[in-house]
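Sample A.
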Amino acid sequence: MEQWNVMYDEQNLDVEVAEPVTKPFEGNGEVNVYELPRVEKMACIVHNGPFSTISKTCDTLFEWMKQNNYLADGPIREIYHKGEWATNNPDEYITEMQIPIK
């Protein structure tokens, strides 16, 4: 299905990294600081395993959205619950993917 690749443009890739912080601080020319907007409806799925197989999980999420008549209403958010900082085994990685929907 690979529908999620429609949003990917290798030449003009816009990436944001969200990191929770414990206290407010000002951004600078390289770092912007802002609160993620509240999302009313979010389709979510948890991927267990290496990043090399995450596209199959994403395809499953988009297929569920299609079958339930939902459209993406914003960029995909990924939350890395367990990764290389916690284990040397990629099969133990846990990644949550969230997509705002309408």
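Sample B.
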Amino acid sequence: MSSTVPVRGASPVSADVHVLARTEDGLASSARAEIGPGEPVFAGHYPDFPIFPGVCVLECVQRAATDGSAAPAAGDLAAVESARFAGAVYPGDTLTLDLAWRRTPAGLVCRATATTERGRAASVRLRFATEGDAR
């Protein structure tokens, strides 16, 4: 399944995040975001050497996790359980996101890897609360 409708809410990230594929069971997916030089965050992070902030990478993962009616994460983001940043994301990079899901007693957990053409940019684990989950 492919989604061509970008997901965007109140966010500092103007890039569209597109889900490219999702497994039939919905427990794995891949997405892409083109990080253009016009991203508003580059003006302050940093004007002479722009780097896409880690929190914006997290935003892209969250958007990919909740994109479309087939997305497993229908609940609210409950926690950023971990985030490890391994490489910078620069203007003009394509951010590729690979997501995998599992259910836990505390909610639905999404493990994601974000990469650019240069390699790994981040490893992220998000937890989403679903109805009836303990928070």
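B remarks: Strands lie at 17-22, 28-34, 76-85, 94-104, 107-116, 119-129. The two ends are 31 Å apart (CA to CA).
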